[in-house]
Specification:
By secondary structure, this protein is mostly helical. The chain contains 15 helices and no strands.
Length: 267
Amino acid sequence: MTTFPKPGDAATAAHERLFPGHASTLTVTDPELIAYFDNFAFDEVLRHTGDLDERTQLMTQLAAMIAVGAVAEYRVMLGAALTVGVTPVETKEIVYQAVPYAGMARVFDFLHATNDVLTGRGIELPLEGRSTTGRDTRTAQGPAVQKRIIGEQAVDAMYANAPADEQHIQRFLSGNCFGDHYTRTGLDLPVRELLTFAMLAALGGADAQVRGHVAANLNVGNTRATLLAVLTGLLPFIGYPRTLNALAAVDASAPAEGAPTPKDQHA
């Protein structure tokens, strides 16, 4: 009879804390893979995420799961997030924050999944509203928060460089993405920027936007160490290629102390 490996003590303890009383059916059908994965995701990886508290780490993981379309895994991890103290308001804000980045076509199923999990825990919906802008104020407040995050010169350049027939897209970006979403209460700007970074890294094919939001994270007070902790926590769920691409963006905008500059590397 084959003897299969089992997760180690640290991974087992973390799993029980996050998913109390839950045993995955995959431990029966795929015990080797689950042992490897649990030891990696719930032990090795957690040793290198000290610059990120557990709640925020789980929120960034949920954001990434929305970006990759992993509804089943999202449901499981949402339960873990609620177990360790992520609030219903925060869970809804993660989903809402995903709409301008992943699109409603992808987010739709996650919104329903979130509602199912929350109502299953006896939480009455809808929650209290969190909007601070309306159609008459978003066009002013959106650009203001956009400039705070991205930088005034960068935002002005985006408008200046956009052809006349694309100006409406820039207005949408300011009024909808920033005016409707970033002005909401429930999450502060540094956490929203970490969520955006996690989503863009997980999406793949958004390298320019990842670079832009590395800079945006630095603008709102997040550090290289925090961004590396986010990516470390995402790695088991989004894989190496997308993680390494995002790491390149971090290294370009927030190089490690003493790291050679691109010029030094090519000298």
